[in-house]
Amino acid sequence: MTRPSAATVAIASLITEREWQRQVTDAAELFGWAWAHFRPARTERGWRTPVSGPLGAGFPDLILCRGDRLILAECKAEGARLSPPQRQVHALLAQAVPLYTWRPSDLPAVLDVLSTPALTRPGLPPGRGQATGRGAPSPRPGAASRAGGTR
Q: What is the pTM of this model?
């Protein structure tokens, strides 16, 4: 996939992370995906998402499921970076399930992933689809990709 133009990145930089995530979930619903997002709540110590376990801090924004496909996605504003806990958790999760980091300038890759039917490899149990093509997860867990690789 070619890199987005400077104009595309400039326009994409105007979209907040919250707005971007809403665009991704709207597209997911259009393509028949069910999804979940765990929202933070305001506490005495600031904004917190109630989680427990070693995967909690840094867990991706979205869990998406359609048919025998399950993917995870982190929605980031243009230019935003993953936190160290996110990099650690994503590296671990990307070994087991397709995990994407999507920015507004990645919209074409996002639509490719969401519109592609499940591609299964022979010998894998149901639910272990193979992501291929643009927007496929990075082969290096935790590596960022303009095409939508892991965070």
A: 0.71
Tell me: the pLDDT tens digits for 54-77?
888 899 999 999 998 999 999 999
DSSP 70-127: EEEEEE--TT----HHHHHHHHHHTTTS-EEEE-GGGHHHHHHHHHSPP-BPTTPPTT
Number of C-beta neighbours around residue 37 at 10 A = 16
Four-point Cα dihedral 97, 98, 104, 107, nearest 10: -140
Neighbours of 86 (CB within 10 A): 20
- All structural domains of the chain, each given as residue ranges with its CATH number in brackets, are 17-37+55-120+127-151 (3.40.1350.10)
pLDDT cut 90: percent of the chain above it: 51
